[in-house]
Amino acid sequence: MNDLGQDLELRLVRYFTVVAAHQHFGRAAADLHVAQPALSRQIQRLEKHLGTRLLDRVPQGTRLTPAGQRFLPRAHALLQAARQAESAAREQTETERISIGYVEDLVITAAVRELRRRHPDAEIATRYLSCRDVGALSDKRVDALIARAPLPLAADDVFTTPLYEEPRMLVVPRGHPLAVRASVTADDLAGEAVAPCAFTTADWTAYRILGVGVPPIESYEDKLELVASGRAIAVLPVGDRRSSLRPDLVTVPIEGAPSSQVVLVSRKGDPNPMIRNLRLAAKAVLAAPAA
């Protein structure tokens, strides 16, 4: 008679299949790394649960009873189903992870908080990226990227979701002729910026540093230092507040300049469902900072 109300233990089923494969308790015990008496007791527990003998001891070892012969293929199927169920659960767990890259001045806290609220069991990581980390999305160090367009990524390789736009502002040193203006236009800048410099496709935020004879500069802080020294002027998105931390710099709104667009980018064909979830969360809560 079996133990009513108790579930069949997979461990006992696995022990039975190993004994059946070896047809010998001693060899099966060695394979399972358990003591032979303990293995015998576990098989007896299984037989008691099923209400029938599965194995007979013979001089050469053990052999399956008719009931054992019928149970063995079903035992293998049961173990395989358990492995498949475990694998499916783990695969789902793997997809409930996402690493979000973000660049420069952008603050993505609201989107991350909203994503965690919607998916409390997901593993969500963030990673700050500088302009030198341009390959982070392509080489899968991050699953999604929130940055300013244009990005030096092949359009055929990525899926881009616009989030919001910001107007641009001029940054000049205090005392510059344009520093006292309420606003400027592109025509006003034409006389100032004789030649563009230090702007390449690696400049993720599409910031413009304008001047004459200025060498390429990667560091944002060095660019601000260049502007503060009077050697260049900068065109930045209004959402970037870092220049306002310097008392020697002045920001002036630019009329008629193209907006700076903040986008969410992911790899095309990526099956991770958390990317879509991030897209929905980001579109729901991210908004352009007040000018």
Q: What would you say this structure looks like, in words?
A:
The chain is an alpha+beta fold. Helices cover 36% and strands 24% of the residues. A six-stranded mixed beta sheet has the order 8-12-7-11-10-9, sandwiched between helices. Helix 5 links the parallel strand 3 and strand 4. Helix 1 crosses helix 2, helix 1 packs across helix 4 and helix 5 packs across helix 8. The longest helix is centred in the first third of the chain and has 30 residues. It is rod-shaped. The chain starts with 9 loop residues before the first helix and ends in a 6-residue tail after the last helix.
CA radius of gyration is 33 Å
Helical content stands at 25-40%
Mean pLDDT: 84
Strand order across the largest sheet? 8-12-7-11-10-9
Assess the beta-strand content as a share of residues. Answer: 15-25%
Give a quick account of the main beta sheet: strands, pairing sense, barrel closure.
6 strands, mixed
